[in-house]
Write a structure and sequence with these properties.
This protein is α+β, with helices and mostly antiparallel strands. The protein is built from five helices and six strands, in the order E-E-E-E-H-H-H-H-H-E-E.
């Protein structure tokens, strides 16, 4: 692929993929096909939990959805009121205000990825744009 694709379908505006996708155009618009969506989402989650900056509301929602957890279940897991999760998710671009809950979320998600043999790697530092490329049978941060 010569052009990166902005993967907004994941709920994050900052995710771009360099390959591993195809675009078919018809009268109804574009149909995007991705190779191994679960693997891509795992790579995105691994990158989010490993990065040094605080998570924002959109990233919290991405991780919660990937965990298949509703706000009540995640609130119980993190030891916080579920209504706070909804408030934090609504503040899409704002950092999460509870550092301890964020740390517990990162640890919980990283443990799940470890069980799936997905490495938690922060990838290149200092870039707000999260870029991924398909290499062999896996997605990697670039």
């Amino acid at each position: 692929m010569s052009q990166s694709y902005q993967y907004r379908e994941c709920g994050l505006d900052s995710v771009w993929i360099e390959n591993g996708y195809s675009i078919e155009r018809d009268d109804w618009g574009d149909l995007i096909s991705l190779v191994d969506v679960d693997g891509l989402n795992n790579a995105i989650g691994a990158r989010l939990v490993a990065q040094q900056r605080p998570l924002n509301g959109a990233e919290l929602r991405f991780l919660r959805v990937e965990l298949l957890a509703d706000v009540e279940r995640l609130g119980a897991k993190l030891g916080i009121d579920p209504s706070l999760i909804s408030l934090w998710e609504a503040g899409r671009d704002r950092p999460l205000p509870d550092e301890m809950a964020e740390r517990r979320l990162r640890t919980h998600y990283a443990e799940i990825l470890s069980g799936l043999d997905v490495p938690v790697d922060s990838g290149p530092a200092g870039n707000e744009r999260l870029c991924f490329r398909r290499e062999g049978a896996q997605w990697v941060a670039v």
